[in-house]
Amino acid sequence: MNSSGVRSVARIVARDDGRGGTALPVLESDGPLALRRTRGSGAEARVMLVGAMSGPLGGDHFTVRARVEEGARLSVGSAAATIALPGQAKGEARYDVRLDVADHAELHWTPEQLISAKGSDLHVTTRVDLAPASRLLLREEQVLGRAGEEPGRLTSRLTVRVAERVVLDQELACGPGAPGGWDGPAVLAGHRTVGQLVVVRPEFGADPVTARVLGEGASVVPLAGPAALVTAVAPDALRLRRLLDEALTSLL
Amino acid sequence: MSRAALLVLADGRFPAGGHAHSGGAEAAVKAGRISGAASLADFCRGRLHTAGLVAAGLAAAAALGTDPVALDRAADARTPSPALRLAARKLGRQLLRAARATWPSAELDALGREFPKGAHQPVVLGLAARAAGLGPVDAAYCAAYENVSGPATATVRLLSLDPFDATAVLARLAPEVDRVVDRAVEAARQAVDGGVDALPAASAPLLEIGAEAHAAWPVRLFAS
């Protein structure tokens, strides 16, 4: 039995092709992380992350790196939800996402949900570095357990830097073994899905969004920088997506 | 270090304005998520391991002499709710006034000049501890404990909860406060060399959402 798990690093580089479109000089799949270019729209290149096998399992370490160079536009989605599962290998699984966006470039990073299945133990880190004149739409959705199932352990840290200044740094830890109170009235209160949208636009610096709530389960807030954050909790993935979509529409 | 100085700083009667804030308890009571001693305990436990851990890390780092401007930015990044950022700065300004009168120090004076509208309260707390001759562990204990004592006291008023029950909630959380302080101080020591990104960033979605809902109420008993 291989106790070290799978190491896998996928890479994307998006570059202005000089003809009003975006080229992908680097599109490197690796093992379970398969990348496919799909039909984009306008100047944008579109990439789908296709899970070539299930995972991440315990002991696996996946990394996805994407760099959007000056003037390029990239949109990345996934073909299906990612499911964290318990593995044969010992220890937690890791999933690291590293995103860099240059000036006058735009990245949409909107994968499907991350589902934390019973018995899994996954540590996710997402780090975005943005140049001052870049744009970002990033969506993260976490589903705690498959239908009717108790969740695994999930720790997820999201860090967003604009012009080298951290505008958002948040970690959510939940599931068995997480610090106490994660399912209680201060944190999730029994909700089984939680999601965030981060929208970064240079114009938010001078004209920030107005803070507001959408029902009892979501808020839209201006961060301390040219960025807005939507935070939402919901009983299930469908209602979570509706909340996030509604919030996004209100930001457009 | 004087242990009595720690009691002065941690005393709920220290005139720093904390009594006007419920730490999210008022919003949680209104939403029906706190309805008695058991749910108060669960609320406080969740707050302790999220906002409490973050505050304790910032306070410990400030007490160790980490640059307060970098810490204040780290606090901003860990506090997405503008209502909570505003409350933290108001509390920071009030604490700074009280601390400067109590333990005059050049560092506290400089902090006041750097942040005329107030720095995040845990950063001020750490520097106040330093001015009082206390260390990072003391600062982290003050921050972690007041993160749960605030909501507990507020809930006594909001729900007419028996004060004995509220105090019992705090007493039973004591071992977890110890663990949070250990984690916070360890991270603060890493931040001395590794930078403020090493500080805890634990978040509580419903505290953030609830704070924005609460800030929009026309009438409320507590400021946050």
Automatic annotation (TrEMBL), chain A:
The gene is ureD. GO terms for molecular function: nickel cation binding. Required for maturation of urease via the functional incorporation of the urease nickel metallocenter. GO terms for cellular component: cytoplasm. The lineage of its organism: Bacteria, Bacillati, Actinomycetota, Actinomycetes, Kitasatosporales. It is found in: Cytoplasm. UreD, UreF and UreG form a complex that acts as a GTP-hydrolysis-dependent molecular chaperone, activating the urease apoprotein by helping to assemble the nickel containing metallocenter of UreC. The UreE protein probably delivers the nickel. This is Urease accessory protein UreD. Belongs to the UreD family. Keywords: Chaperone, Cytoplasm, Nickel insertion.
Automatic annotation (TrEMBL), chain B:
It is found in: Cytoplasm. Keywords: Chaperone, Cytoplasm, Nickel insertion. It comes from the Bacteria. GO terms for molecular function: nickel cation binding. One of its GO terms (cellular component) is cytoplasm. Its main location: cytoplasm. Pfam families: UreF (PF01730). InterPro entries: UreF, UreF_sf. UreD, UreF and UreG form a complex that acts as a GTP-hydrolysis-dependent molecular chaperone, activating the urease apoprotein by helping to assemble the nickel containing metallocenter of UreC. The UreE protein probably delivers the nickel. Required for maturation of urease via the functional incorporation of the urease nickel metallocenter. Belongs to the UreF family. This is Urease accessory protein UreF. It comes from Streptomyces viridochromogenes (strain DSM 40736 / JCM 4977 / BCRC 1201 / Tue 494).
